[in-house]
Fold this protein.
Amino acid sequence: MRRGEPKTLRDAHEVVMDRRPPNDANPSVWLAFRLGNARLYKAIADVDRGHHHEALYWAGYEERKAGEISAELQAGGTPAD
C-alpha cells in the first residue's frame, strides 16, 4: 500500500467513518461507498495480519450491504443505509 493509506483495521474504520455519506445520499453513492469499503477491508486483511479474519468479516459485511442496495436499485426501490 502507498504511504498515507491505512495499514491497520483501526485505520480502515477511521477512513470508512470519515468518508461516510449523509443518510439521505443517493443510493448509488451508498453503493459506491459500500463497494469501496469492501475493497479497503480486503486490502487491510492482507496487511494487518493480526486482524485478518475480522477485516475479512467487515469486507463480507460491506459486500452484503452493497448487494442489498444493488437489489433495491434494480427493483426500483430506495434502500436504507
